[in-house]
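Predict structure. Chain length: 195.
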Amino acid sequence: MGALNQAQAELKDIAVDVADALVRVDDSRSQFRSFQPGVGPFGEPQLVKLIATRLNELSKYQSAACTKRSPDLLIPGKWAIEFKIARPYGDNGKEAENWSVNLLHPYQGNVSAIGDCYKLAKMTGLERKAIIVIGYEHVPPKIELIPLIKSFEVIAERVSGIRLSARVEIRREGLIHPVHQALRVFAWEVLAVAV
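Prediction complete.
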Protein backbone atom coordinates (compact mmCIF):
# COMPACT_ATOMS: atom_id res chain seq x y z
CA MET A 1 0.00 0.00 0.00
CA GLY A 2 1.40 3.40 -0.98
CA ALA A 3 2.10 6.11 1.58
CA LEU A 4 -0.90 8.14 0.44
CA ASN A 5 -3.26 5.16 0.69
CA GLN A 6 -1.81 4.29 4.11
CA ALA A 7 -2.34 7.87 5.31
CA GLN A 8 -5.94 7.82 4.01
CA ALA A 9 -6.59 4.54 5.86
CA GLU A 10 -5.09 6.00 9.07
CA LEU A 11 -7.19 9.14 8.74
CA LYS A 12 -10.33 7.06 8.26
CA ASP A 13 -9.46 5.07 11.42
CA ILE A 14 -9.03 8.32 13.36
CA ALA A 15 -12.34 9.68 12.02
CA VAL A 16 -14.12 6.47 13.09
CA ASP A 17 -12.50 6.70 16.53
CA VAL A 18 -13.53 10.38 16.83
CA ALA A 19 -17.13 9.52 15.88
CA ASP A 20 -17.17 6.62 18.35
CA ALA A 21 -15.75 8.87 21.08
CA LEU A 22 -18.47 11.45 20.49
CA VAL A 23 -21.19 8.79 20.55
CA ARG A 24 -19.82 7.58 23.90
CA VAL A 25 -19.99 11.13 25.27
CA ASP A 26 -23.55 11.36 23.97
CA ASP A 27 -24.49 7.98 25.51
CA SER A 28 -23.23 9.23 28.88
CA ARG A 29 -25.92 11.94 28.73
CA SER A 30 -23.26 14.54 29.54
CA GLN A 31 -24.48 18.11 29.67
CA PHE A 32 -22.53 21.20 28.62
CA ARG A 33 -23.37 24.24 30.75
CA SER A 34 -27.13 24.72 30.89
CA PHE A 35 -27.81 23.16 27.49
CA GLN A 36 -29.83 20.00 26.96
CA PRO A 37 -27.94 16.71 27.48
CA GLY A 38 -26.03 15.27 24.56
CA VAL A 39 -22.78 15.82 22.74
CA GLY A 40 -24.20 18.36 20.25
CA PRO A 41 -24.03 21.55 22.37
CA PHE A 42 -20.39 21.12 23.50
CA GLY A 43 -17.91 23.77 22.37
CA GLU A 44 -14.83 22.94 20.33
CA PRO A 45 -12.22 23.05 23.16
CA GLN A 46 -14.40 20.88 25.41
CA LEU A 47 -15.06 18.40 22.60
CA VAL A 48 -11.39 18.08 21.70
CA LYS A 49 -10.51 17.33 25.35
CA LEU A 50 -13.23 14.68 25.50
CA ILE A 51 -12.02 13.17 22.22
CA ALA A 52 -8.42 13.03 23.47
CA THR A 53 -9.54 11.32 26.67
CA ARG A 54 -11.51 8.69 24.73
CA LEU A 55 -8.71 8.12 22.19
CA ASN A 56 -6.23 7.56 25.00
CA GLU A 57 -8.41 4.74 26.29
CA LEU A 58 -7.58 2.86 23.06
CA SER A 59 -4.27 0.99 23.10
CA LYS A 60 -3.34 2.05 19.56
CA TYR A 61 -2.91 5.66 20.73
CA GLN A 62 -0.64 4.61 23.63
CA SER A 63 -2.11 7.40 25.80
CA ALA A 64 -0.23 9.90 23.60
CA ALA A 65 -3.10 11.97 22.15
CA CYS A 66 -2.96 15.43 23.70
CA THR A 67 -4.75 18.72 23.35
CA LYS A 68 -2.76 21.82 22.59
CA ARG A 69 -3.39 25.36 21.53
CA SER A 70 -1.94 24.56 18.11
CA PRO A 71 -2.78 22.05 16.79
CA ASP A 72 -6.03 21.25 18.60
CA LEU A 73 -5.04 17.57 18.91
CA LEU A 74 -1.58 16.09 18.55
CA ILE A 75 -0.80 12.41 18.16
CA PRO A 76 3.01 12.74 18.44
CA GLY A 77 4.95 11.51 15.43
CA LYS A 78 1.70 10.69 13.59
CA TRP A 79 -0.96 13.43 13.22
CA ALA A 80 -1.51 17.11 13.96
CA ILE A 81 -5.25 17.77 13.78
CA GLU A 82 -7.38 20.90 13.81
CA PHE A 83 -11.13 20.65 14.53
CA LYS A 84 -14.14 22.74 13.56
CA ILE A 85 -17.83 22.36 14.41
CA ALA A 86 -20.67 22.81 11.89
CA ARG A 87 -23.92 23.22 13.79
CA PRO A 88 -26.73 24.83 11.75
CA TYR A 89 -29.16 24.82 14.68
CA GLY A 90 -28.70 25.83 18.29
CA ASP A 91 -29.77 23.96 21.40
CA ASN A 92 -33.08 25.88 21.26
CA GLY A 93 -33.95 24.51 17.80
CA LYS A 94 -33.51 27.85 16.05
CA GLU A 95 -31.21 28.27 13.05
CA ALA A 96 -27.86 29.62 14.25
CA GLU A 97 -26.52 32.87 12.81
CA ASN A 98 -23.26 32.71 10.86
CA TRP A 99 -22.89 29.00 11.59
CA SER A 100 -21.05 28.31 8.31
CA VAL A 101 -18.42 31.06 8.63
CA ASN A 102 -16.11 28.80 10.67
CA LEU A 103 -15.51 26.73 7.57
CA LEU A 104 -15.49 29.19 4.70
CA HIS A 105 -13.60 32.35 5.69
CA PRO A 106 -10.64 32.18 3.23
CA TYR A 107 -7.98 34.19 5.01
CA GLN A 108 -4.82 33.33 6.89
CA GLY A 109 -4.67 34.16 10.57
CA ASN A 110 -8.35 33.62 11.36
CA VAL A 111 -10.12 30.79 13.16
CA SER A 112 -11.87 29.23 10.14
CA ALA A 113 -11.13 25.74 8.84
CA ILE A 114 -9.27 27.33 5.93
CA GLY A 115 -7.26 29.46 8.36
CA ASP A 116 -6.47 26.25 10.25
CA CYS A 117 -5.20 24.64 7.02
CA TYR A 118 -2.79 27.56 6.56
CA LYS A 119 -1.68 27.18 10.18
CA LEU A 120 -1.13 23.44 9.77
CA ALA A 121 0.93 23.99 6.63
CA LYS A 122 3.33 26.22 8.57
CA MET A 123 3.86 23.69 11.35
CA THR A 124 7.13 21.85 11.56
CA GLY A 125 7.44 18.29 12.73
CA LEU A 126 7.02 14.80 11.40
CA GLU A 127 3.26 14.63 11.85
CA ARG A 128 0.83 14.47 8.96
CA LYS A 129 -1.69 17.31 9.13
CA ALA A 130 -5.46 17.01 9.03
CA ILE A 131 -8.61 19.05 9.42
CA ILE A 132 -11.69 17.40 10.95
CA VAL A 133 -15.17 18.93 10.86
CA ILE A 134 -17.74 17.66 13.36
CA GLY A 135 -21.24 18.38 12.14
CA TYR A 136 -24.76 17.87 13.48
CA GLU A 137 -28.05 17.44 11.63
CA HIS A 138 -31.67 16.57 12.28
CA VAL A 139 -32.95 13.20 11.01
CA PRO A 140 -33.95 13.84 8.28
CA PRO A 141 -31.80 16.97 7.86
CA LYS A 142 -33.52 20.35 7.89
CA ILE A 143 -30.26 21.85 6.62
CA GLU A 144 -27.90 19.35 4.98
CA LEU A 145 -24.19 19.76 5.67
CA ILE A 146 -22.93 18.47 2.31
CA PRO A 147 -23.33 21.81 0.43
CA LEU A 148 -21.22 23.48 3.14
CA ILE A 149 -18.62 20.72 3.03
CA LYS A 150 -18.37 20.90 -0.77
CA SER A 151 -18.08 24.70 -0.54
CA PHE A 152 -15.22 24.33 1.93
CA GLU A 153 -13.42 21.98 -0.48
CA VAL A 154 -13.89 24.32 -3.45
CA ILE A 155 -12.76 27.42 -1.56
CA ALA A 156 -9.82 25.59 0.02
CA GLU A 157 -8.57 24.16 -3.26
CA ARG A 158 -9.56 26.71 -5.91
CA VAL A 159 -9.41 29.98 -4.00
CA SER A 160 -6.83 29.36 -1.27
CA GLY A 161 -4.54 26.89 -3.05
CA ILE A 162 -4.85 24.22 -0.35
CA ARG A 163 -4.46 20.66 -1.63
CA LEU A 164 -6.60 18.26 0.38
CA SER A 165 -6.82 14.49 0.33
CA ALA A 166 -10.05 12.78 -0.61
CA ARG A 167 -12.75 13.39 1.99
CA VAL A 168 -13.32 10.81 4.73
CA GLU A 169 -16.88 10.79 6.04
CA ILE A 170 -18.42 8.99 9.03
CA ARG A 171 -22.08 9.26 10.10
CA ARG A 172 -23.79 8.23 13.33
CA GLU A 173 -27.50 8.60 14.12
CA GLY A 174 -29.56 8.18 17.25
CA LEU A 175 -28.02 10.94 19.37
CA ILE A 176 -30.07 11.91 22.42
CA HIS A 177 -30.35 15.66 21.71
CA PRO A 178 -33.68 16.65 20.09
CA VAL A 179 -31.93 19.01 17.64
CA HIS A 180 -28.49 17.44 17.14
CA GLN A 181 -29.81 14.01 16.20
CA ALA A 182 -27.10 12.87 13.76
CA LEU A 183 -23.34 13.26 13.98
CA ARG A 184 -21.16 13.63 10.91
CA VAL A 185 -17.38 13.58 10.96
CA PHE A 186 -15.57 14.85 7.85
CA ALA A 187 -11.78 14.61 7.60
CA TRP A 188 -9.10 15.59 5.10
CA GLU A 189 -5.35 15.42 5.16
CA VAL A 190 -3.83 18.80 4.33
CA LEU A 191 -1.32 17.82 1.66
CA ALA A 192 0.06 21.17 0.51
CA VAL A 193 -0.64 24.88 0.51
CA ALA A 194 0.35 27.21 -2.35
CA VAL A 195 2.62 29.98 -1.14
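Summary: The CA atoms of residues 173 and 182 lie 4 Å apart.
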